[in-house]
Amino acid sequence: MKVLLISAVIYCAIATCFAQKVEFHDCGSQLSTINEVDVNPCPSLPCIFKTNSNVTLTITLTPNAAVSDAKSVVTGIIEGIPVPFPLPDENACNFMTCPLAPGTAVTYKTAIFVRPEYPSTNLIVQWEVTSSSGEVFCFLVPATISK
Ligand SMILES: *[C@@H]1O[C@H](CO)[C@@H](O)[C@H](O)[C@H]1NC(C)=O
Questions:
Q1: I need a labelling partner for 131 at 20 to 30 A (CA). Which of 28, 71, 138, 144 fits?
Q2: Residue in 57, 87, 113, 115 to alter for ligand 1 test, most ligand atoms within 8 A of Cβ
Q3: Where is the signal peptide (predicted)?
Q4: How many domains does the chain have?
Q5: d(C-alpha 116, C-alpha 104), whole Å
């Protein structure tokens, strides 16, 4: 019992307890339901993204259709103006297991490097995964970039 408890605490310390579930707005998911969005670090909203640091993003979703190709599209909405955020790898299938099968939950996991040259600003992060068969998911999370 004691051993179990200790292992649970250690597991928690190295894994799940760092996951920070955030409230998000769905912006038009069609081919899946988003179950959870975790952003690390993001103890409260808006997420504060420090330049020169990595932010990890873990999304669990349950597809309602088969999807074999998927592309990540990220946009920063700054004072209402959408600014495309280029990703080093747009192939969303490199960050989750494809093809997606209806009813089988998958995890999409990625990290972004907050580059030192990014301006300090408030923004809404719009993270979308699209496919040839439609919008897989889309969510919005408010954030602040700070030095
Ligand atoms: C961010 O992640 C990249 C790739 O894993 C790593 O090389 C880099 O050292 C990390 N940077 C910081 C500031 O943690």
A1: 144
A2: 113
A3: 1-19
A4: 1
A5: 38
Calculate the alpha carbon distances from 99 to 60, 69, 88, 133 in Å.
15, 7, 21, 12
Q: For residue 9, is it within any domain?
A: no
Q: Which of 18, 40, 50, 54 to mutate to test the pocket of ligand 1 (most atoms within 8 A of CB)?
A: 54
Q: Which domain holds residue 77?
A: 20-146
**Measured between alpha carbons, how far is 123 from 68 in angstroms, rounded to an integer?**
31
The answer to the question of residue 89 being in a domain is: yes
At 138, which CATH number? 2.60.40.770
pLDDT in tens, 117-128: 999 999 999 999
Nearest residue CA, atom 1 of ligand 1?
A: 54
- How high is the pLDDT of residue 113? 93
User: Please, what is the average pLDDT of the chain?
Assistant: 91
Give a yes or no: residue 51 inside a domain. yes
